Amino acid sequence: MSNENFLVCDRDLTEEVLAHYLAAPAVAIDTETMGLLPQRDRLCLVQICDPTGYVTVIRIARKQTEAPRLKQLLEKADITKVFHFARFDVAQLAYHLDIAVQPIFCTKIASKLARTYTNKHGLKELVQELEKVELDKTSQSSDWGNADQLSDAQLSYAANDVRYLLPARSKLITMLQREERWDLAQKCFQTIPVIVELDLMQYEGIFEH
Q1: Residue 137 in this model has a pLDDT that exceeds 80
Q2: Cβ neighbours around 3 below 10 Å, total
Q3: What is residue 141's predicted lDDT score, i.e. its pLDDT?
Q4: Which side of the chain, N or C, has fewer Cβ within a 10 Å radius?
Q5: Do 87 and 199 contact (CB within 8 A), yes or no?
Q6: Shortest CA distance to 59 belongs to which of 33, 22, 79, 95?
Q7: What letter would DSSP give residue 61?
């Protein structure tokens, strides 16, 4: 199913759409779920955007455990996967679809390292400052489980959550390099898979005294 602003796929990318994304140097990724706990709450949507603004929303079926073409894209080593709060999305993709995402860029981590003049690092605030766009977050807390009957507002919300991540990433990289924190940011991104593994095993505070 297509919309003037994005494409909707069921269960996985098509071969044609996969080929389109495999040509990109980076893609933005987001997920929508029924809650915050992967072991309890199912994955409902995966959204993807490339540097041209081409957005795809994948509807994940109940009890679905694999999406081979999505896995191929998200595990491809020469395409950077850009998330906002990667820790959450990477855990969802690992637990529900057995996808080991790499390499990773997290705009939330980058924001916290670069934008130390503010404590507002949510996606809405980040996009508003860097892209001069005010995101509509009214569908943020809604029922994503009824995939066949998602409203246009829900689908548009999901699409917009990835639409501005790549340009925001470019501006954050410039800020991090200017403030000499780019190397530190890359080290932080590289730790995300380890933190996700600990989260999924329900470890807490192992680095504390």
Answers
A1: no
A2: 13
A3: 77
A4: C
A5: yes
A6: 33
A7: P
Structure tokens, 155: 């689908």
Q: Provide the whole-model pTM.
A: 0.95
pLDDT tens per residue across span 40-90: 999 999 999 999 999 999 999 999 999 999 999 999 999 999 999 999 999
As a whole number, the mean pLDDT across the chain is 95
DSSP letter string over 108-167?
HHHHHHH-TT-S--SHHHHHHHHH------TTSSS--S-GGG--HHHHHHHHHHHHTHHH
- Specify whether the CB–CB gap between 150 and 144 falls below 8 A: yes
Smallest CA-to-CA distance from 86 within 44, 11, 31, 34 is with 31
Q: Find the Cα–Cα–Cα–Cα dihedral 138, 165, 121, 203, rounded to 10°.
A: 100
Q: Domains along the chain?
A: 7-200 (3.30.420.10)
Say yes or no to pLDDT of 4 above 60: no
Phi-psi region of 11 (alpha: psi -120 to 50; beta: other; left: phi over 0): left
